[in-house]
Amino acid sequence: MRRLQTYTSLWAMQPHDQSGVKLPYDQVCEMVAGAGFDGMAIDLGASDVAVAHAVRPHMERNDLTPLIVAFPKTVESLEDTLKMAKDFGAPFVDVIGQVMPIALDDMVPVIETWMEMSDKIGMPIQFETHRNCITNDLYTMLQLLDRIPEMRVCADLSHYVVDREFWYPLSDHDLGLISRVLERSDSFQGRVASRQQVQLPLDFPQHQKWVELFKGWWREGMTSWRDRNATGDCIFLCELGPPEYAMTGPDGKELSNRWEESLIIKGWVEDIWSDLGGDE
């Protein structure tokens, strides 16, 4: 059976909106589960292992599946995170590698070593398209994908829209580059960016062209996922980060309600999935 599984992020829930209030973990998990999310990502860049263990019982009580997001600063340090994620019952570890060689030839053995760790421990990994990490640049990422056919991707395309400063409308050439990433992507993240801003409020009129662009990419990515997978879970993470990801006004308050926006994105993705055939 193929299923869509929607997640949000603990990082995105601290705070969850422009009130600035940080809810305790039990209330966060009740809120996330009550909204119909299937899981929640624990970001070890925004928090730490102690936080992961603290929130775990509240997630289990609310039947939320944990997804571990790792920021390994050394090649060796990913091993402990993989073991922890396996114990937590995570579907995979989302790797945002802080080991960042300059040369492609030096990047390849880093990626391959992490993949060997993954196979040895029995915990799948995906490499997120993300700035300030080993997959920082779209062009380098495409070369890595060519060099390492087994490398799998978690697609957060907001980073590459900013990274490349794509003009709108995107050229066929640039759209083709993104399609190459989506063809290797096994999960997806929900955030809408423009060429200058990594996270846009969703309902501003001037942002609608970017909203439609990202909705099209999510459809393309999930279509590709379904073509490649007869069974399994397609995981979509609605990850709307707090300031300074979220845009703010002169008073320092956010310009939109991220919790409400996460539910909007969740609804869009569920509609796309249903249109493609739904759970089956």
Largest sheet: 8 strands, parallel, barrel
pLDDT < 50 stretches: none
For the CA atoms, what is the radius of gyration? 18 Å
**Alpha-carbon distance between the termini?**
5 Å
InterPro entries: Xyl_isomerase-like_sf
Protein name: Xylose isomerase-like TIM barrel protein
Give an account of the 3D structure.
The chain is built from nine helices and eight strands. The chain has 280 residues and is α/β, with parallel strands linked by helices. The chain has one domain (2-275): Divalent-metal-dependent TIM barrel enzymes (TIM Barrel), CATH 3.20.20.150. Helix 1 (25-34) packs across helix 2 (49-61), helix 5 crosses helix 7 and helix 8 (208-228) crosses helix 9. The radius of gyration is 18 Å and the shape is globular. The termini are close together. The mean pLDDT is 98. This is Xylose isomerase-like TIM barrel protein.
